[in-house]
Structures are given as structure tokens and as C-alpha cells.
Amino acid sequence: MKEKDTLAGKFWQKWVEGRDDYEAFSHLYNLYINDLLSYGISLGFSEETCRDAAHDVFFKVFTEKKRLSAVKKPTAYLFRSFRNHLLNIQKRQHRFAPDFTFETYPFTTEITILDNLIDQEEAQRLKNIIKELLEELTPRQREAIYLRYMQEMEYEDIAALLNMNANSARRLVSRGIDNLRNKAINGDQLSFDVWLLWLLFASSKF
């Protein structure tokens, strides 16, 4: 993700500060569109709604680039704008009350990393266990952990996205990880496999 952020920063700067570099804009779109869709679907929105929101975000980037020259972290900006657009779309459709927020909205995500590591039967077995573990977390904890370990965001950026300070974001992730660890340790013997798998792609980022 660090390499991706560096690349995105390069394309972002070329787009917002230079001439109409359509190739740079295209690279930005291709770098982020799948991540944004995955994030929106994890929040519980349909793929169609997520695409509408993502296209709204990129339309703004395309048409208002001069106003975006102060943005130094395109990843954080795009995710936050996308999240806000999802909220606005839902309010326009009157599917939620005007004061709807994401505070208690269920956050789910597919465990796809397993598919490339082990056979299908074993992957499904571990997916089911991980799903049970994740259900022990609050929606906010699941979302924060997703942003930290799947999108590799800094705590400051997670905080801005979730409308809290960086220390609160760090505590949110830490408590979520502690809950997962305790549940895995106190669970059945299969949970050791899950915790070992978690260490493969998460522990180095604590």
C-alpha cells in the first residue's frame, strides 16, 4: 500500500497541479475504483449505489481539480469523499432518516485472502471461523480494522474518516484486535489456525 500511495500521490499531483493530464486521471481511477467499491459494499450498500458514489467522487476530482491542490493524501480524501457521497445518496433516496449516520451501520467484509493460500474446503472452514470472530466486534471496530489492515491507512486518516481523533482510532483498532485475540485463544483448537493466519498479514502492522 505504501508503494500504491506513492504512485497515487504522483498521479494526483500531475492531475491537480498540471495541465489536463488525462492519463494521470485514468491511473488514479484505476488505482482506487475497486478499493472504493469493496469498501462501500462492506458498509452494506449495493454495487450500483457504490458505483454511483464513486463516479460522483471522480467527477468532482475531474471538474474541480484546482480546488484540490491542497490535498496531500489522495487515499484519505477519496475514501472520505466516497463515504460522504454514499450517505448523501441514501438520504436523497429517503431510505434513512435525515440524521442517519454510519455509527451503528453493520460493516461486513469478505475474507478473500484465504482463497490464494489454501484449498477451497480449508478456506471455507477458516472463513466461517473468522466470520464468527469478526461478529464479536462492533461495526466501528470492524470498519477501523478493515481500513487499518486491508487498506493500510494511517491512524490519522482513519480518524478523519470516522470523525474521531487519532488516539481514539488507535484505541478502537487495539480493542478490536484484543477482542479477536481473546476470542481466538479462548475458543476451540481451530482458532489457533485463524490466529496464525491473521499474523501472516496483520501482525507486522501493529
UniProtKB/TrEMBL annotation:
Keywords: Sigma factor, Transcription, Transcription regulation. GO terms for molecular function: DNA binding; sigma factor activity. InterPro entries: RNA_pol_sigma-70-like, RNA_pol_sigma-70_dom, RNA_pol_sigma70_r4_t2, RNA_pol_sigma_r2, RNA_pol_sigma_r3/r4-like, WH-like_DNA-bd_sf. Residues 129-177 form the RNA polymerase sigma factor 70 region 4 type domain. It comes from the Bacteria. Pfam families: Sigma70_r4_2. GO terms for biological process: DNA-templated transcription initiation. Belongs to the sigma-70 factor family. ECF subfamily. This is Sigma-70 family RNA polymerase sigma factor. It comes from Tannerella forsythia (Bacteroides forsythus).
